[in-house]
Structures are given as structure tokens and as C-alpha cells.
Amino acid sequence: MKRDLYVRFDIESNTITAGPQEGMAGQDGWRQFVPAPNKLPRDTLDYVVDEDYGAVIQYVTGSAPEPDTDESRSLHYPKIAEQLDKLFHDIDNGTLDDSGEFYTALKAVKDAYPKA
């Protein structure tokens, strides 16, 4: 379930001063935040404020170079909560070995993005 995020935004400096966080709908000074999809950690970002909707929209202005192996892996590993859930089920099912969900999910990413 996708939740709305909100930020405090300084128009003069074009920067986020607080947030993004949930639960700030209707709070004075907070605007809905629309993050740029599929951004990489080294991408250059900018913002536009949509006054009609009271939203701050983030977009990528410059693309980062191709990610290295570590960055590629971190972008493709399951989220930590999913990893822990897989680990729990493997322990519960007695499959805490190379046949378990946890191992196979991480192994698939490591195989797709091998270290040089």
C-alpha cells in the first residue's frame, strides 16, 4: 500500500527542509511530495512546486553513470523486511540452507551482478 509523503519546502533555496514523511496532510507548511521514480544515489535532482495541488515534484536533471556492482546489487536486493520474512519462513520450515527462499533470493541478485 502506497502512502503519501509530505515535505516542508523552501522555495527561495529550492530545498527540502524537513521530510519526506507520512502523516503530515493538512499540517501548516507541509506539501505533498512526489519523488522521482527510479533515481540513483548519484543522480542530480531538482524540484518544481505545483501550487495548484500544493505538491513538490522531484525530477532527475542529470543521470549518474552506470551503477557499479555494489550499487546494482543494493538496488535489486529485496527490501530488508522481505529478507527477514524469508529468513523467518526458512527457519520455520527447516530450509535454512541453499534451498531456502532467503538464500535463493539473494543468490539470484549476486548471480545477476557478479563481482569482477
Describe the overall structure.
This protein is an alpha+beta fold and 116 residues long. The chain folds into 2 domains: 5-62, no CATH class; 69-112, no CATH class. 29% of the residues lie in helices and 28% in strands. The chain has helices at residues 69-76, 80-93, 101-112, and strands spanning 5-10, 15-21, 30-34, 44-50, 55-62. The protein has a 5-stranded mixed β-sheet, with no helix packed on it. Strand 4 (44-50) and strand 5 (55-62) form a beta hairpin. The longest helix is centred in the last third of the chain and has 14 residues, at 80-93. It is elongated and about 55 Å long. The mean pLDDT is 90.
- What is the spatial order of strands in the main beta sheet? 2-1-3-5-4
Number of helices: 3
Structural class: alpha+beta
Uncertain regions: pLDDT < 50 for 5+ in a row? none
Shape: elongated
Helix fraction bin: 25-40%
Radius of gyration: 19 Å
Calculate the mean pLDDT score and round it. 90
Major sheet characteristics: 5 strands, mixed
Strand residues, percent: 25-35%
Count of extended strands: 5
Order of helices and strands: EEEEEHHH
Count of distinct structural domains: 2
Quaternary state of the chains: single chain
Beginning-to-end CA distance, first to last residue: 37 Å
